[in-house]
Amino acid sequence: MIEFDVRTLESGVGAVTPRGRLNMVAARQLKDILTTLSSDGVHQIVVDLAETTFVDSSGLGALIGGVKSTRQMGGDLRIVRPTEPVLAVLQITNLDKILRPRDSVELAFHE
Amino acid sequence: MSDARMGDLTGHLELSAPASVESIDLTHTLLEHLWQQNPQVDPACRLRVETAAIEVMANIVEHAFKHDGSLAETRGSRRLTTTLGVHADGVVVGFCDDGRPAEIDLSTVTMPDETAESGRGLAMALAAVDELVYDRRDGRNYWSLLCAI
What is the ipTM of this complex? Predict the structure, then answer.
């Protein structure tokens, strides 16, 4: 089960916090959220993974899709504060470069 | 390996459920029960098993039953049986389903490049556990995985 918190920071950056497991079911919801943000003109997105307890290939696919679509619009999708299980999966899939973890939601676009 | 190895398991858990994406959450729950019963399994091994099991299950749901959606006679009747247990050698998970044969050769599976949005699941499963086997017998698909303790 998963819940998503979606907000826009004062800087205009979109912040998405998945709470729970980011699996096949949740990945569909995340894709929809990212598409909605994009339609609203938000192309700088931070995904806060501090409360994401698990991620599978579908969840990773949704994040990579977000990276590609935001970059096409001159923006980016950045992840922050991944939990240990999520970081381990990023490492075995060699995605820790394209999805390089940052330390905080507020500073993700200031590094 | 699934039948023989599963036969040795004591106190194993089994779930028979419709082969649907909703059943994936049930498998996470079943794994939580397994860890409660077997606290000796360390967190790294738990993550490896969960990663591989969920990827295999997602593959089954996505591919073995993808043509069932419009067939009234099969819709909702396909079953996926999941068996979990801790063996002397490690954690064992088996899946059995009556869907289409998986057209996959696990020896050729590789991790796609970093910009790929799909096609990563079975490569992750293979990378996560010590053994992953697929077999087609008697019109059923059998998947089994082992993570050594």
Answer: 0.90
Decide if B51 and A56 are in contact by the 8 Å CB cutoff: yes
CATH number for the domain spanning A60: value is 3.30.750.24
Summarize pLDDT for B26-36 with one digit per residue, the tens. Answer: 999 999 999 99
Chain B interface disruption, residue of A22, A24, A35, A57, most B CBs within 10 A:
A57
Asked if A87 has any chain B CB less than 8 Å from its own CB, the reply is: no
Place of tokens 């979990």: B84
pLDDT of B75 over the 90 cut? no
Query: Can you give the pTM of this predicted structure?
Result: 0.90
Whether B100 shows a pLDDT value over 90: the answer reads: no
Domain contains A110? no
Alpha carbons B36 and B40: distance in angstroms, whole number: 9
Using H for helix, E for strand and C for coil, what is the string for chain B? CHHHHHHCCCCCEEEEEECCCHHHHHHHHHHHHHHHHCCCCCHHHHHHHHHHHHHHHHHHHHHHCCCCCCCCCCCCCCEEEEEEEECCCEEEEEEEECCCCCCCCHHHCCCCCCCCCCCCHHHHHHHHCCEEEEEEECCEEEEEEEEEC
The radius of gyration of chain A's CA atoms, rounded to the nearest angstrom, is 12
What total of structural domains would you count in chain A? 1
A104: in domain: no
